[in-house]
Specification:
elongated, alpha/beta, 10 helices, single chain
Amino acid sequence: MPDRRVVVTRPEADARPLARDLALAGLVPIVMPLIEVAAVADQERLIQAWRGAPHCLAVMFVSSNAVDHFFDRRPPDLALFNARAIARTRAWATGPGTLKALLRHGAELAWIDAPSLEAGRFDTDTLWDIVCSRVQPGDRVLIVRGADAADGLEAPPARGVGRDWLAEQLTLAGAQVDFVVAYQRRAPHWDAQQLAQARLAASDGAVWLFSSAQAVVHLQRLLPAQDWSGARAVATHPRIAAAVRNAGFGVVCESRPVLSEMVASIESIG
């Protein structure tokens, strides 16, 4: 019988509902978050960003956590991304998880630009194909992002990730791009039992599910001497898959972040 255990590495709040869905699909999830998410200390910047958002063409959210922490500071008198809004500001998202978070907070589909479930990939390249024709010189776009706990909030976002590529395309189109940090990411603190469980899962047939390259970085720091050549993984984006391969995982399969496809990928190597 194929091994049906899957190690879910998303932050706790994201990992639990995904684990329930995986269990309903017949898999055996093991929740081992590799990223902790926390609110930023300076909440005033988020309130200021909300006040400026009605003057933007769009607000782009890098993740569901960006949505949740941004909406936590929504002024009660301000509506966006739905029929009650006075401003025509759009919400941009790259994946189904971020889209679901927007809907959960009261945004309406008619006000959201995101790749369809039939899209080949969920990333900023696909999003740009959807929105590029609407961007005019002088437009403003706000990008809501996270920051690593080690970074200062004044530090520029790291290069080489999708949001930076999108910002470059917007700038080339004549738009003004602003960033606001809505949450902080940090490495988890694992106890001896968790470390032992991770070492075992490196070679016992379980499949690791990665939705973030930063999670791979944190795993390597937690277990710097671990041999991953016997480990198997599913990654939800080519960039994440590359990070997993670079970490030394023996088998890496790519999947879009859609439940049915993640399950099929896990079962194909499980």
